[in-house]
Amino acid sequence: MFEIWDIGGGQILGVISNIACGMGKNTIVFSETGKNFNSMQDYPLFMPSEELALKGAKNWNKADKQEYFDWFIKIKSERVSHMLRYIDFCPSGDRYVDLGQINLKVYELLCESDFHDVREVDGGKKLNNTGFALVTDFGIYFSMLLEQNSDKLKWVIAKGSKSYHSYNLPVLTGFSNGEYDFIFLAISKFGYALNHLKAPYDWVAFLKEMESRSE
């Protein structure tokens, strides 16, 4: 199930991997094979197996978290490829220019009603399942940019206490100051941008900062 995190003064639905979604007739689910989408109209949701989704990451045993990790590693490249096709973007080869343009396209999509719901309590925007899927794929894309720039980085399964927001989930490690869950950060930062900045977050500056921590 979704967990709600209070970040930057606004509630942001977090940890996409804990989803147990209700499936509408137009829902397209990205299956464990990484190939189960057949439309460019609806953005494919980000779903592990139903069993893992219903358990929730905090409750996974050793076999469960390894199953999810293997699934994630298998589908992450195809998720990014589909995101780029969906937003009709062809990379130029300049990582900073590309990131800036992709960031803007994703932010503009998230502003559309198909990608967010409105909170009754304050009228703020909260990502719906489609918005979560798009932001998750952006977080993967951001992670892959860092991977391409450093051979020190690698994906591992996060440990620590159950209170850790990325407990049992894939994180990127090898930075001078520890490990990072860029999917969680993408959810947080896009939520903050939608409700507080009212403009795209500067992901290019953040990329440069993170690159300096992986040299």
What key attributes describe this structure?
three-stranded antiparallel beta sheet, 215 residues, alpha+beta, globular, two-stranded antiparallel ribbon, 6 helices
Description:
Helix content is 44%, strand content 15%. It is of the alpha+beta class and 215 residues long. The protein has one domain (3-24, 39-212). The strands form four sheets. It has a three-stranded antiparallel β-sheet with strand order 7-8-9. The termini are far apart. Mean pLDDT is 84; it is low at 1-40.
Strand order of the largest sheet: 7-8-9
Order of helices and strands: EEEEHHHEEHEEEHH
Percentage of residues in DSSP E strands? 15-25%
Number of helices: 6
- Using the CA coordinates, give the radius of gyration: 16 Å
Spatial gap, N to C terminus: 37 Å
Mean pLDDT: 84
* Helix-residue proportion: 40-55%
How many structural domains can be distinguished in the coordinates?
Answer: 1
